[in-house]
């Protein structure tokens, strides 16, 4: 059985799809995993040896500099990549002498909904994979109602400020934080709104819509969108595999450093692959950690602060003062860090993968969303599951070092919250263990894929 999988070229999309690929490969399903050329080499060099997955790259038609123009990459992925994928399937199938070498199924990131048409053209079954919360799709499904009720205008701009909640166990969303609004760039705002509306229609004809989430995490969303099948958290069901496809080089000494710290003592901070802090906020955070007097492990990507002039500008003397207590790295093996017993809490931008990795390990979170679906995820963490606290307020303005320090103290002193985080960890563990709902869904899905060849 030969399946093609196509990822959206962002870290948070590639990682979970590659984890699904590894699970399928373990069930003797041959995988051709397609990346765009921009990320291909980085994904292959960090995962090539770990997995039996075969990697292929396709061009996105962009010059290197164009990829940094807001909206260009997304547009290319929506418009250029599908034709390349269609040609690739045709080529593989035309050159395959054996039936088993032909591509028999297309699994694609649901944000590239136009790949559904590619599967229809190639007359092969298709699977839309959602690497985010099911709540995100529910939001997309409800866009016509939001327009009808005058909550947003036809450009997606918020017209009302009352919070929106589609079901009691779903996130409470402020219209100004809807995924498309939070990107704060009108070109991308329009792109996302348009894609979400289109994708709803397109993926309706997919054979499966699967989601890296669990029934118990989002019961309301799965009731409102019963066609979405939760198979996650994939990382937990796939613990024996390494987290693959890292775009950046992982620091190799953090785990040893964590071994030397007391149990449940370390604050881990990471804002994923894209979120940034402006220079003043970055310095305030550094001071909050310094004054907090606790050990910390802080991921500061080289591009963590916008601007080219010495972006990782720490306060004067900061690095000397925190020596021995604080460790600053460029990129972590986050899944391993979060499962380390020395980690006490996670200061996070609330990307969905980071969220799943944290709740699967029972690690309480301090939530500092930046854009896109991160506000939805924050509401799940703070309002619905109640395993984290919100940092800052949504009105903007700088979060002071005092507030940062106090919030961390508050989080670590909240025993009931920590108790809930451990219960959620148990729940996640049971959903991916044999007999659990995600486990069963995943097995049904794998059986279906194995039968696609008939
Ligand atoms: N990640 C990592 N090392 C880091 C920071 C992040 O391996 O230092 C991984 C993290 O484990 C997660 C992914 O990068 O799987 C980030 O995805 P997420 O959805 O949390 O955020 P995004 O990067 O899409 O904003």
TrEMBL record:
Keyword line: Glycosyltransferase, Transferase
One protein family per Pfam: UDPGT
EC number: 2.4.1.-
The keyword ATP-binding belongs to this UniProt entry's keyword annotation: no
Identification of the protein by name: Glycosyltransferase
EC top class named in words: transferase
Family in the record: Belongs to the UDP-glycosyltransferase family.
GO molecular function, one term: quercetin 7-O-glucosyltransferase activity
PROSITE patterns: UDPGT (PS00375)
């Amino acid at each position: 059985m030969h399946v093609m999988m196509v990822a959206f070229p962002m870290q948070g999309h590639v990682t979970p799809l590659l984890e699904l690929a590894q699970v399928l490969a373990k069930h003797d399903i041959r995988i051709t995993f397609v990346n765009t050329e921009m990320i291909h080499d980085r994904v292959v060099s960090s995962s090539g040896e770990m997995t039996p997955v075969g990697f292929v790259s396709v061009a996105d038609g962009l010059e290197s500099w164009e990829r940094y123009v807001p909206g260009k990459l997304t547009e290319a992925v929506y418009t250029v990549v599908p034709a390349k994928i269609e040609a690739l399937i045709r080529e593989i199938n035309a050159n395959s002498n054996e039936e088993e070498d032909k591509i028999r199924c297309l699994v694609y990131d649901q944000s590239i909904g136009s790949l559904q048409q590619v599967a229809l053209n190639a007359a092969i079954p298709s699977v839309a994979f959602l690497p985010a919360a099911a709540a995100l799709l529910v939001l997309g499904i409800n866009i016509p109602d939001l327009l009808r009720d005058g909550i947003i205008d036809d450009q997606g701009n918020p017209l009302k400020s009352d919070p929106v909640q589609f079901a009691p166990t779903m996130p409470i969303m402020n219209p100004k934080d809807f995924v498309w609004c939070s990107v704060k760039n009108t070109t991308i705002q329009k792109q996302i709104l348009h894609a979400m509306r289109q994708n709803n229609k397109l993926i309706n004809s997919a054979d499966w819509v699967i989601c890296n989430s669990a029934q118990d995490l989002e019961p309301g969303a799965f009731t409102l969108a019963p066609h979405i099948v939760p198979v996650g958290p994939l990382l937990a069901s796939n613990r024996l595999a390494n987290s693959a496809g890292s775009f950046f080089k992982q620091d190799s000494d953090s785990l040893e450093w964590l071994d030397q710290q007391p149990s449940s003592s370390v604050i881990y901070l990471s804002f994923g692959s894209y979120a940034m802090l402006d220079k003043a906020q970055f310095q305030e955070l550094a001071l909050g950690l310094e004054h907090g007097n606790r050990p910390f492990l802080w991921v500061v990507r080289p591009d963590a602060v916008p601007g080219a002039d010495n972006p990782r500008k720490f306060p004067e003397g900061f690095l000397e003062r925190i020596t021995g207590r604080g460790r600053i790295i460029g990129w972590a093996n986050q899944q391993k860090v979060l499962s380390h017993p020395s980690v006490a809490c996670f200061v996070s931008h609330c990307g969905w993968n980071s969220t799943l990795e944290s709740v699967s390990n029972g690690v309480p979170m301090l939530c500092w969303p930046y854009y896109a679906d991160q506000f939805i995820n924050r509401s799940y963490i703070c309002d619905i599951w109640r395993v984290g606290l919100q940092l800052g307020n949504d009105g903007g303005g700088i979060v002071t070092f005092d507030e940062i320090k106090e919030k961390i103290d508050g989080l670590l002193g909240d025993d009931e919250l920590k108790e809930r985080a451990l219960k959620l960890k148990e729940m996640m563990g049971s959903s991916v263990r044999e007999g659990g709902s995600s486990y069963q869904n995943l097995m049904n899905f794998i059986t279906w894929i194995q039968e696609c060849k008939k």
